[in-house]
Amino acid sequence: MATMIAAMKKRLRSGLTDQDRLSPSALASPISEARLALDEAELGFALPDDLRQLYLKIANGGFGPGYGLIGLSGGKPDDTGKTANQIYLLFRGNDSDDPAWLWPVGLLPICYWGCAIYSCIDCSDRAFRMRIFDPNAHVSCDTWDDAFFEECDSFSDWISAWCGGVDLWDRMYGDNGRIKQRRAAQSN
Question: Domain for residue 54, yes or no?
Answer without folding.
Answer: yes
